[in-house]
Design goal:
Rossmann fold, 2 domains, elongated
Length: 392
């Protein structure tokens, strides 16, 4: 990924060709071996770290002029700090693999930087000038090659969104996970949309139905008439879309039954997005046996006085708490609501999926969770959100 990324971006290639030790990782440009003087008038070496603005994995004009630095605060040759680039106090913000942002600096040209060569060269000039005045042999241009790291990503292009927000280290909490999504109807398809944007290792999707015209109106994106005429399986339709972004999606064009449920034993989390209570009951029972965490979604809608009312539900089952499940998830095949007749609304499906995915991200430690609720409901007409079955 590193050399391909550099070769396709003229500004990065110029930095490398001129001898800078550059590395591209997780949406960041890292420039190693930057000489500077510390407060004790010693020559040290730090790292410049910049988020990357990309389009199709090729750099575009940097979206900001700020740069991050790993090391002590750079000083003049007399040990006084370089004040012209002051931007923040000491940060000590961990990124990944021992990489830490200790400080951020600001040097802003009138029209910003046109490319990353200009940005890096300018900061190196400012930070390294005192070190070169002490020892003219020190340089950031070592011509050392930083080895490729092909390990790393399940994405087909760099997650530059996380690097722009400096939350790459938080996204690492999803790595190594295997996720299953049972049902790719209205809610399940939105769950896939959100989960596919995280670096989980695997996403298994299960649904035996075809993707038909009515599905297009309660799913993310917009299907063409040509696609609808193909009568594709839902899992094949959505896998084709999201595999353009995520490498780990596996499609199972079948419903989850006793015959294949053992596939869920190795899952980290399972999202249940189906409207058959008999199937739901069997799946939950077996997941409890397996000790696999699950998040069950539900939506009930009725027409009252020429308007829709209803409730969205998310129920969590974990090895820590699952005694509430029989009281929260019904056993009747269908409640008496209009959802049972396949009236679904995309915004409610999306909200149901969002509640489920946010709960999952809380479990992973991505979002702070102070209540550890295992059952949440949102009532549409009163805008009431209730969290119950909490662990204090």
């Amino acid at each position: 990924m590193l050399q391909q990324q550099i070769n396709r971006s003229p500004d990065l290639k110029r930095l490398r060709d001129e001898g800078f030790e550059i590395e591209v990782k997780g949406g960041y440009l890292i420039v190693h071996h930057i000489p500077y003087v510390n407060a004790n008038r010693e020559i040290k070496f730090g790292k410049l770290i910049s988020s990357l603005s990309l389009n199709n994995n090729v750099t575009i004009k940097p979206d900001n002029h700020v740069i991050n630095f790993m090391g002590e605060y750079p000083c003049n040759n007399d040990g006084t700090i370089i004040t012209g680039i002051q931007h923040s106090g000491q940060l000590n913000q961990a990124l990944f693999d021992g990489m830490v942002i200790n400080f951020s600096f600001s040097n802003r040209p009138a029209n910003g930087y046109d490319n990353y060569y200009e940005k890096i060269a300018r900061y190196v000039e400012i930070i390294s000038a005192p070190a070169r005045s002490v020892d003219k042999m020190v340089t950031a241009k070592t011509f050392k090659v930083v080895a490729d790291n092909e390990d790393e990503t399940v994405f087909k292009y760099i997650d530059s969104n996380s690097s722009r927000g400096n939350i790459y280290q938080l996204n690492s909490k999803f790595k190594g996970q295997s996720i299953a999504i049972i049902g790719l109807g209205g809610t399940g398809s939105y769950v896939l949309d959100f989960v596919a944007k995280t670096p989980v290792d695997k996403i298994l999707v299960f649904d035996g139905d075809d993707f038909l015209q009515h599905n297009a109106f309660r799913s993310p994106g917009a299907a063409s008439t040509e696609i609808l005429n193909m009568h594709m399986k839902k899992v094949d339709y959505f896998t084709a879309i999201y595999s353009q972004m995520h490498r780990g999606i596996q499609a199972f064009p079948e419903n989850v039954t006793e015959a294949n449920i053992d596939l869920l034993k190795a899952m980290s989390y399972v999202f249940i997005c189906i409207d058959s209570n008999s199937a739901r009951g069997m799946i939950i029972s077996r997941l409890r046996e397996f000790g696999v965490n699950f998040i069950d979604t539900g939506l009930g809608v009725n027409v009252v006085e020429d308007a829709l009312i209803g409730t969205i539900r998310v129920t969590l089952g974990t090895s820590v708490k699952n005694d509430h499940i029989p009281n929260r998830i019904g056993s009747a095949e269908h409640d008496d609501d209009d959802y049972a007749t396949n009236i679904q609304i995309a915004d409610l499906n999306a909200l149901n999926a969002l509640m489920a995915v946010i709960k999952w991200k809380k479990l992973c430690g991505f979002y702070q969770d102070l209540k550890h609720e295992h059952h949440s409901t949102y009532t549409i007409n009163t805008s009431q959100l209730i969290n119950e079955d909490t662990i204090e």
